[in-house]
């Protein structure tokens, strides 16, 4: 019998890792693994370990929506640094189950669209898409933290940086470990 890899052993125990290396393939693999685990263990806790920077917003929203749709209790453990759209990941945990190690840093950063060359209509479409993304991102953080959308928007524009203790006060996490 083939010995399981470390990744397989972690998943068997409901432990999933989210890093900045999320691309379409790794996001889909994570989603499939979460769905498979949940189907077999709908009442067991899912533990998400997060250390992530800038990632594609489509993958962020896909992971967010899938995790929020699962019946499992979910806990999150922020480690290292969390920035940009990845700020969505720590708030995936159920209230009371959102943790961070004491030296974790949280970096707010404004949602950015990439405006390249193109016709005016192409640029307008991209601007509207970026606006929709920003509104969705700010709404998720607002709902999770209890802060107003306006406050979230201001903090993203000002690129606020928080320690784990400050993130707890802010409402991004519940406990510092």
Describe this structure in words.
The protein is of the alpha/beta class and 177 residues long. It has a single domain (6-111, 158-176), classed as 2-enoyl-CoA Hydratase, Chain A, domain 1. It has six helices and seven strands; from the N terminus they run αβαβαβββααβαβ. It has helices at residues 6-12, 24-40, 57-69, 120-145, 149-157, 164-170, and strands at residues 15-19, 46-52, 74-83, 98-100, 105-107, 161-163, 175-176. Strands 1, 2, 3, 4, 5, 6 and 7 form a seven-stranded mixed β-sheet that branches. Strand 1 (15-19), helix 2 and strand 2 form a beta-alpha-beta unit. Helix 2 packs parallel to helix 3 and helix 4 crosses helix 5. The mean pLDDT is 92.
Question: Would you spell out the secondary-structure blueprint of this structure?
Answer:
Layout: H1 6-12, E1 15-19, H2 24-40, E2 46-52, H3 57-69, E3 74-83, E4 98-100, E5 105-107, H4 120-145, H5 149-157, E6 161-163, H6 164-170, E7 175-176
Parallel strand pairs: 1-2, 2-3, 3-4, 3-5, 4-7
Antiparallel strand pairs: 5-6
Please give a quick description of this structure.
This protein has 177 residues and is of the alpha/beta class.
User: In percent, how much strand structure appears in the residues?
Assistant: 15-25%
Briefly note the structural class of the backbone. Answer: alpha/beta
CATH class: Alpha Beta
Q: How would you name the oligomeric state of the polypeptide chains in this document?
A: single chain
Radius of gyration: 17 Å
Q: Quick one: how many beta strands?
A: 7
Principal-axes geometry comes out as globular
Poorly predicted spans: none
What is the CATH third-level topology name? 2-enoyl-CoA Hydratase, Chain A, domain 1
Give the % helix.
Answer: 40-55%
H/E topology pattern: HEHEHEEEHHEHE
How many separate domains? Answer: 1
pLDDT averaged over residues? 92
CATH architect. name: Alpha-Beta Complex
Report the CATH superfamily: 2-enoyl-CoA Hydratase, Chain A, domain 1
Task: Summarize the main sheet.
Answer: 7 strands, mixed
């Amino acid at each position: 019998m083939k010995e399981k890899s470390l990744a397989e052993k972690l998943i068997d125990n409901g432990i999933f890792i989210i890093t900045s290396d999320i691309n379409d393939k790794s996001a889909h693999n994570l989603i499939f693994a979460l769905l498979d685990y949940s189907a077999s263990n709908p009442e067991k806790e899912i533990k998400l370990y997060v250390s992530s920077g800038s990632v594609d917003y489509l993958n962020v929203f896909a992971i967010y929506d899938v995790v929020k749709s699962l019946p499992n209790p979910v806990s999150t453990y922020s480690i290292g640094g969390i920035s940009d759209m990845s700020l969505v990941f720590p708030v995936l945990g159920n209230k009371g189950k959102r943790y961070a190690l004491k030296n974790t840093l949280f970096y707010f950063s404004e949602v950015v669209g990439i405006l390249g060359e193109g016709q005016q209509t192409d640029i307008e479409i991209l601007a509207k898409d970026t606006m929709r993304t920003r509104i969705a991102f700010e709404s998720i953080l607002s709902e999770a933290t209890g802060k107003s959308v306006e406050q979230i928007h201001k903090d993203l524009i000002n690129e606020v940086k928080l320690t784990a203790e400050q993130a707890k006060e802010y409402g991004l996490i519940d406990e510092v470990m």
